[in-house]
């Protein structure tokens, strides 16, 4: 099963600068474990205590996984995952 994972700039140090990598798994949790096996350290930047970090947004085919089954969201061959860190800050 091949799933494309789009990596944000801030996490590309874990993927040797690659903008997208392939992974596999039946759920998002399994996919992240698979990515960790090849890109050590990336999973800890996305997951904390078995759940997605509060300020990291993950999309399955452009749909926020928080509105699906979160880290237990089912995946199928050909899906696309996009990881986006939340952006905040500044003054008014």
Automatic annotation (TrEMBL):
Pfam family, one: ThiS
Entries under Gene3D superfamilies matching the protein: 3.10.20.30
Source superkingdom: Bacteria
UniProt-listed InterPro entries: Beta-grasp_dom_sf (IPR012675), Mopterin_synth/thiamin_S_b (IPR016155), Sulfur_Carrier/Prot_Modifier (IPR052045), ThiS/MoaD-like (IPR003749)
Protein name per UniProt: Molybdopterin synthase sulfur carrier subunit
Source organism per UniProt: Streptomyces aurantiacus
């Amino acid at each position: 099963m091949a799933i494309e994972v789009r990596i944000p700039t801030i996490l590309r140090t874990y993927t040797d600068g690659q903008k997208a990598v392939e992974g596999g798994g039946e759920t998002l949790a399994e996919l992240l474990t698979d990515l960790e096996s090849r890109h050590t350290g990336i999973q800890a930047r996305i997951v904390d205590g078995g759940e997605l970090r509060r300020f990291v947004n993950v999309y399955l085919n452009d749909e926020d996984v928080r509105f699906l089954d979160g880290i237990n969201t089912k995946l199928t061959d050909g899906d696309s995952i996009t990881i986006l860190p939340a952006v905040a800050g500044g003054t008014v």
